[in-house]
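Do me a favour: review this protein, sequence plus structure tokens, and tell me how the chain folds. Record follows.
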Amino acid sequence: MSATDQPRLLRALAGEILERPPIWFMRQAGRSLPEYRELRTRAADFIAFCHNPEMAAEATLQPMRRFAMDAAIVFADILLIPKALGQQVWFEAGEGPRLGDLPDIQRMADEVEASTGRLAAIGETLARVRAELEPDRALIGFAGGPWTVATYMIEGRSSDRTAARTFAYEHPEKLDALLDVLVEATARYLVMQAKSGAQVLKIFESWAEGLAEDVFERIVIRPHQALIRKVRAAGVTAPFIGFPRGAGALVETYARAVPVEGVALDTQASAALGQRLQAGGKTIQGALDNLLLRTGGAALDARVEALLAQWSGGPYIFNLGHGVLPDTPIAHIAQVVERVTGTSVKAWAGQELKIS
């Protein structure tokens, strides 16, 4: 495949400045789509859904049928790794994830090798999607950042992360040991994803906010460096996108220190910040507000145009600063996709479900 035949997302991550940026949305698979909600009723629970390759592949492909997105992201969850390491994980309807007590860290370390096999279904999902997805549309694999996953493991639920940050100060050696286990397990998981068809790997460090600079260096930057180093040592060449959400000014420190090809930006990112990252050799992604996507209207059009104007002079991927909200109107997603790509989405809608 020649450089110009490659998926647009891969070209952007290689530093190419394109006539229009590639577009995909975080959490584009599921939640806001009626066909996803119907499919979800067929699974016993959310974890079972993620581990059913036929259903997860269908969920991954659904937005690709509706919208002219340039990339699909595998339908999975960042908390599959704690479960594979032996921690109890479940999802409460309307409340989100719940986790049991943090297991003994050495016992989890002993489970790292086995954990990859317990996640084999996600590899099968990726292989199914890659076989069906058009060659010019990329496939993204992902995992949660070690610190973000650790916060859930420590606190047992979604929260403001106060308890996890306190844990980082009170038990630094224990946290470092937990992060080491997560780095090793996540590296093996991402290697498996790449071998199964993922062409881009994304690290979702969703809770990088509120960290002091020295703590950010220790529990975000160093684990990301180690994670990528391990994946590269396994022979994987797929580009990485790092997303230290909420890191503020520290995102520039992250971009300089972590060997990712792309840096995803949240909604607070300024035009100048993105331009500095581009000038420093990074492809940037983001940072449309998901609340504005839900709101729609002229303000949404104006913001899309502003983002395109401020960042299209460098390598850039159009995306949100956070995931699609469940009650986002489909018409608003279509509005943005059409504005960025110039492609009418009408031809992409109305596909039938493939799961019987």
